[in-house]
Amino acid sequence: MHKMTNDIKVSGEKRLSVSRPSAAPPRAFTEAEFQTLRIVSDTLIPSVGDFRSGSAVSKFDQLVTNAAAILDKHFDILTDLLEELRTTPQTEMWERLKKLEAANGEAFYVLSTLIVGAYIYSDEMKAELNYPAPHRNPPSLFDAADELSSGILDPVMERGPIYRAVE
User: Fold this and answer.
1) Which domain holds residue 134?
2) What is the DSSP letter of 163?
3) What SS3 class is residue 144?
4) Is the pTM of this model over 0.90?
């Protein structure tokens, strides 16, 4: 039996093998930042025909906040960019975003990922795209027995337990 251990200790705290996503961004967006996000969203995802614009989805503020929590390591880039874009009129935003993408692709990537992520995960767009919600699809008792009797777990059982201590 082999035992793998993790000797790395971080100031007495437990070390997780997988980081947990943040539940909230480092701070709440201001109303001015939300307004700039709405203008940028509607510029990147304009209303065309039956398709709603980027900010026209319900719970837009909450969805953008959730997306910002996931992108929390880039929050400073995002808020600096929103401050920079704040005074850009909506009629000039497309040209400004094209210049931003050419000059600072990383900042544009963070901003566009935030907006598209919020839009795609809105209830309206998940319904429109017929996006399946995560769900369990356990096998029936007979399917599970057939799979296990095929020997699929034999190499794992022969190898024995392997784990990484999280201390």
Assistant:
1) 1-11+20-167
2) -
3) helix
4) no
Q: What is the pLDDT of residues 7-55, one digit of tens each?
A: 444 444 555 555 667 788 889 999 999 999 999 999 999 999 888 899 9
Determine the residue type at 86.
Answer: R
The lowest-confidence range among 2-11, 118-127, 150-159 is 2-11
The alpha carbon dihedral of 14, 19, 20, 23 has a sign of: positive
C-alpha to C-alpha distance for 60 and 40, rounded to whole angstroms: 13
Q: Which residue has the tokens 């600072």?
A: 104
Task: Give how far Cα 33 sits from Cα of 41, 52, 95, Å.
Answer: 12, 21, 19
Handedness of CA 124, 128, 129, 135 (dihedral sign): positive
Query: Amino acid identity of 144?
Result: A
Adjacent-strand bridge partners of 13? 10
Rg from Cα positions in the chain = 23
Count of domains forming the chain: 1
Residue with tokens 């539940």: 23
C-alpha 87/C-alpha 66 separation (Å) is: 25
